[in-house]
Amino acid sequence: MRTAIALVATSLIIAACADAPTPVAPKAPAAPVAPVSAAPAVTPSGSTVSPDLIKKAASVGYYPRTRSGLAVFCRKDSDIGTRIPTEKCVNEDQIEETVQRLLQAQQDLQRGRICGSASCGGN
After folding, report:
1. Range of the domain at 93
2. Is there a domain that residue 119 lies in?
3. Which of 12, 34, 64, 79 is the most exposed place for a label (fewest CB within 10 A)?
4. Which ranges in the chain belong to alpha helices (H)?
């Protein structure tokens, strides 16, 4: 008896799965995205952020944002001991120094010069 019930249930499941799938209506194409202009961004304070500065900042992981009407550059970074990334931002004045420092650190690591003292090799 149990075998007969299992056989009937199995054949009902197979019959239900064998039905032709209902056609899905095609989705409408997404609206085209407006191109980003290459002109310098103007902050409400009147200063401009050059595209060159934006490229340099992007090369070390920073992206431009506006916070409280001011242009800032932010990057997501995880602190030591956690896997949760936090967004750290610097203003226009600080980004150039930050980019220089990070690029110098990358170059030092590529050269193998990590310690920074004269005893490391003298360069």
Report:
1. 41-114
2. no
3. 34
4. 2-18, 51-59, 92-111
